Amino acid sequence: MAEITETARAKINLALHVTGRRDDGYHLLDSLVTFASHGDLLTFEPADEDDFTLTGPYGALLSADTDNLVLKARNRLRQAVEASGQSAPAVSIELTKNLPIASGIGGGSADAAATLRGLMRLWQVMLPDPVLQEIALSLGADVPMCLASRPLIAKGIGEHLQSVALPSLFLVLANPLVAVSTPEVFRRLEKRDNPPMDLDATATLPWTERIARLRNDLEPPARALTPAIAETLQALEQTGATLTRMSGSGATCFGLYVDRNAAAEAAKILSERKPGWYVQATQALAGGSA
């Protein structure tokens, strides 16, 4: 078994509609999701005993104890693999944390999903898809979509996934590195039964226009809670973005640009204006319909 690497791609909510709330408190969502070419990096290799190392720009902000989603993913996958009669030997895992912590782009969920993918490859094991999906969902509502890491429409609490024929998009991600409490953002929602997405109604329009007609229902309460989000969106607008929006519950925001060069130039300008921010030009993956 040789060293295995997996990219935990940044998850970008191009739109997020809050459509209801279950009795157990989980919110029902309609979300249009894509994944960036940039993200965290996980490296897996055989070892005499389990080991976990954190590196990268944001690695020092994370804990390497058992609460880390990477370790939870390893342990739950190992349990399922061994229960199926297959082998899941000791492994050394290194997480290079390139994405800001708790920033609305699925960092922890993407890390957990990449751990599942990487260890399946390292251990050379197979599990029935329902079993793998159950493990993913047990780690968090966003983990199943991050496991797929392709453009999707996600419904329910995030477990009902549908592929979508989204083109590759050129983006700049920007985060002022201000903490945002996801529970507090949801608590401040004025309405929890908002209209769902209706992509069929805009099927003849270019994708940028279709996305513009959607929304992120978490953006208004997040902006009220964290004024830096409004500043971030305005800063992206000033670099020539064709569309700006907050991703997930924040504080990462994104701007869409006409091409790779425009995104790269916008990131350069924004990095110079806001040297203390996380700024990344990236390209979202294209997807095909199911």
Automatic annotation (TrEMBL):
Signal peptide: none annotated. One of its GO terms (molecular function) is 4-(cytidine 5'-diphospho)-2-C-methyl-D-erythritol kinase activity. Residues 68-148 form the GHMP kinase N-terminal domain. Catalyzes the phosphorylation of the position 2 hydroxy group of 4-diphosphocytidyl-2C-methyl-D-erythritol. It catalyses: 4-CDP-2-C-methyl-D-erythritol + ATP = 4-CDP-2-C-methyl-D-erythritol 2-phosphate + ADP + H(+). Belongs to the GHMP kinase family. IspE subfamily. Keywords: ATP-binding, Isoprene biosynthesis, Kinase, Nucleotide-binding, Transferase. ATP binds at P100, I101, A102, S103, G104, I105, G106, G107, G108, S109, A110. Pathway: Isoprenoid biosynthesis; isopentenyl diphosphate biosynthesis via DXP pathway; isopentenyl diphosphate from 1-deoxy-D-xylulose 5-phosphate: step 3/6. The active site is at K11, D142. Residues 209-273 form the GHMP kinase C-terminal domain. Gene3D superfamilies: 3.30.230.10, GHMP kinase, C-terminal domain. Its EC number is 2.7.1.148. This is 4-diphosphocytidyl-2-C-methyl-D-erythritol kinase. Coiled coil: none annotated. It is an enzyme of class 2 (transferase).
